[in-house]
Amino acid sequence: MADPRWLDEREFRAWLGYRRMRLLLDAQIVRDLNRDSGLSDPDYDVLSALSSSKDRRWRLNQLAAHMLWSKSRLSRHISRMEERGLVTREECAADARGADIVLTDGGMRAIEAAAPDHVESVRRHLIDLLTTEQIETLGDIADTVLAHLAEDQGDTAP
Hints:
This protein has six helices and three strands, in the order H-H-E-H-H-E-E-H-H. It has a three-stranded antiparallel β-sheet with strand order 1-3-2. The chain has a domain at 22-125: Orthogonal Bundle (Arc Repressor Mutant, subunit A), CATH 1.10.10. It is mainly alpha-helical. Helix 3 packs across helix 4 (71-83). It is globular, with a radius of gyration of 19 Å.
């Protein structure tokens, strides 16, 4: 067995900095989202995915895969969102065993109302702190890591 390739000081700083930044940044943006709109992070993820599709619907299993959630976990969350009038569940026309998650008009109003404050939070806590070059580098880093992870999982796109 090969010896571990320990991180040097520079690599360790980058790794720990990334981990701490990710935790604190996610927590702050989620707090802002909830305070400004009453939506949770998963609510926002579901609503933004649905609002970005041309017919405002996704198959439950595809949405679960997109969110990296199990179908049962997403199904329970969708039930809570249905109670609040944000989404509905419809039988899939192509496959009666499956369900489509459909964005309601109330859900569309909720995402449209939340988006401006959400993007302002992202700007305030990340984007506006960085130079143009840093943003470009961050995008390049994300592309590289996502392509590697997609390749490891057998996906064709990051």
